Amino acid sequence: MYIYFLFAVQSTLTDQGRQYGSRAALNLWEPKIIGNQNSASFTIVRDASPLDQIHSIQVGWMVNNALYHDFHPHLSTAWTNDNYGKTGCNDVVCPGFVQVSRDTPLGVRLSPSSDYNGTQHYIIVTVYKDPVNKDWWLLYGDDNQKVGYWPKALFNSTFADYADVLQWGGIVYNDGVLPWPEMGSGHKPDIDQEYRKSCYIGGMNFIDINGDSHAVSDALPRVMVRTSPSCYDIWFATSEVPGEDYAILFGGAGGNNC
Description:
mainly beta; Jelly Rolls
C-alpha cells in the first residue's frame, strides 16, 4: 500500500493546458525503512487519463533496500502507460529508459544526506519534452547533464506530446510490516516551517513549449493531496529556503496507525 503527499500543479498553467517538463531541487534524507518498505521524494509529469490508464514519469530519490540493497537514497525513476497495471518499472528493471550518461546511471547512490537542523544537501532534476523528436529527457544537476530519455513510443496518449499535470512531493510504501516508514527527514513540518528540520522541494518550475522555465508561485492553480495526515504532513514554505523562490515542506515519522 502506498501513501502519497503531493503538491500538484494543474493543467491550466500554459497555453491550452499543456506542459513540457518539470524542474526542482529535492532535499536529500535517509528515512528509516524496514523489510520491503520504501520512501521517496519525487517530481512527476503525467497525463489526465482515467486512473487505470495514467501515463507518467517519476524522478527523484528513493530509499528502497529491496531494489538498491542498502538503506541510502538513490537516484530513482519510474514510468508507466497504464498506472503500473501491466507496463512500467523503476529505472531500467524493464526495457524503456535509454541511458546515455556514463557518469550518472539510474540507481546511483546519492550522498551526503542532510543533517537535522544542520547542513542541507539536495539534487536538481529536470524532466522535459524534446521539441523535435518528442522524447522525454532526464537532466541532472546544476549543469543539466543529460542522463537519458524515455522514447515517445512508450506512450500512446497525449503524453507522447505533452503533460497535463505536474506533481511534487513524497511517497512511502508499506508491504504490511509495521510500523509505517519515515518520510523525508522523519519529521513533520513544524509550526515555524523550518527547512532544516523537514524535507523540502524547492525551485519548482514548469517548462513551456519553447523550453523556457517558469517558477511555480502562489498565483498558480494548485492542489494539496494528503492521504494519511496522522503520520505525515505537507505545507507550503513561508520561511526562506536559501536560493529558492518557492518550496514545499513535507514528511513525518510514520508509525502503526497510518
